[in-house]
Design a protein that fits this description.
mainly alpha; globular; 63% helix
Length: 155
C-alpha cells in the first residue's frame, strides 16, 4: 500500500479545482445584492484588457492540466497555496459579514495589502507549479499585473 508521499503517480486528473476554489466567493458576491453603490473609478482600457485576458487564461488553462502533487517541493507549495486561499477566504468573509462596503475590498488583512487581489494572484502563481505549467505561470503573471493594478486604482 502506497502512502500519500510515497506514491509517485499521485495527482488530481483535472486542474479545474484551481479556478473553482478562486471563483467560489466571487459567485456568492455576484448573487448577493450590492450593499453600497459606489461610483466606478476610471481604469485605463489597456489595464482592463490585460486583466481580462489574464483572468480568462487562469480560469481556462488549469482544465488542461493535472495537479501533480508528487513533485519536489509540492508539500511546501501546497501549504503556501493553502495559506493564500485562507487569507483570500478570510478577506471575503470579512467583506460579507462587515457590511459589504467597498472599503473592505482594499483594507489590509493580517498585514497583506489588497488581500482580495494579492492572495488569489499568489495562489494562482503557486498553482502553476503544481500544474507544472509554464503557460499557467505566464497567465498568472499577466492576470496578477492587471488585477493588482486595477484593484489598487479602482477601489
Amino acid at each position: 500500500m502506497n502512502s500519500f508521499l510515497g506514491n509517485p503517480s499521485f495527482g488530481i486528473h483535472s486542474g479545474g479545482l484551481i479556478p473553482i476554489l478562486v471563483m467560489l466567493p466571487n459567485i456568492v458576491w455576484m448573487l448577493l445584492p450590492k450593499s453600497t453603490v459606489d461610483q466606478p473609478k476610471s481604469v485605463p482600457l489597456i489595464l482592463t484588457i490585460v486583466e481580462n485576458v489574464g483572468r480568462f487564461a487562469v480560469l481556462i488553462l488549469p482544465f488542461f492540466y493535472s495537479l501533480e502533487l508528487n513533485r519536489d517541493y509540492s508539500i511546501p507549495v501546497i501549504i503556501a497555496a493553502g495559506l493564500c486561499l485562507a487569507i483570500y477566504y478570510a478577506a471575503w468573509m470579512r467583506y460579507f459579514t462587515h457590511g459589504r462596503t467597498s472599503e473592505l475590498f482594499r483594507a489590509p488583512l493580517l498585514g497583506v495589502p489588497l488581500p482580495l487581489a494579492l492572495a488569489p494572484v499568489t495562489f494562482l502563481l503557486l498553482s502553476s507549479y503544481l500544474l507544472n505549467s509554464w503557460p499557467m505561470l505566464i497567465a498568472a503573471l499577466i492576470f496578477g499585473f492587471g488585477h493588482t493594478w486595477v484593484s489598487a486604482i479602482s477601489l
